[in-house]
Write a structure and sequence with these properties.
With about 140 residues, the chain is of the alpha+beta class. Helices cover about 25% and strands about 25% of the residues.
Length: about 140
């Protein structure tokens, strides 16, 4: 099972408010995969350990789309901000602010960048539900 960092949206994961995330990579994911949500998994200093935020998340859907879709279709953009866990956030509940924040925190990203939209659900994991990768 892969770790996925939620350093920017730790509070939203802890509250169970976030069910969608956008990434520049993660093209290999498919529905049914499980992810371990962690606070940070890269750039840890010697002796630091990964901090697991919640039980594994089950991927529901994966698709590629331009980030600007949130700006071009504002109804979609507001709905996606809520799914990203920002429904009650004073700034990032607005698609333009969310897209601006995303671009500012992802080197080389612009509104026209195609991103991977990953939808997931909580509480669906058990050791038996994960495929045995060693067969």
């Amino acid at each position: 099972m892969r770790n996925m960092s939620f350093a920017i949206t730790t509070d939203q994961i802890l509250a169970g408010e976030k069910t969608v995330t956008r990434r520049l990579g993660w093209l290999f994911l498919k529905p049914g995969d499980f992810l371990r949500p962690v606070k940070k998994c890269m750039g840890l200093k010697p002796g630091q350990k990964v901090s697991v935020l919640a039980d594994p998340l089950r991927v529901v859907s994966v698709r590629r789309e331009p980030l600007r879709r949130m700006l071009d279709d504002l109804e979609y953009g507001f709905a996606e901000c809520a799914l990203e866990g920002f429904a009650s956030h004073p700034d990032y509940k607005y698609p333009s602010a969310f897209v601006g924040m995303f671009c500012a925190t992802h080197r080389g990203c612009t509104e026209d960048t195609e991103v991977t939209r990953i939808e997931f659900e909580y509480g669906q994991w058990s050791p038996e539900s994960e495929p045995d990768e060693h067969l």
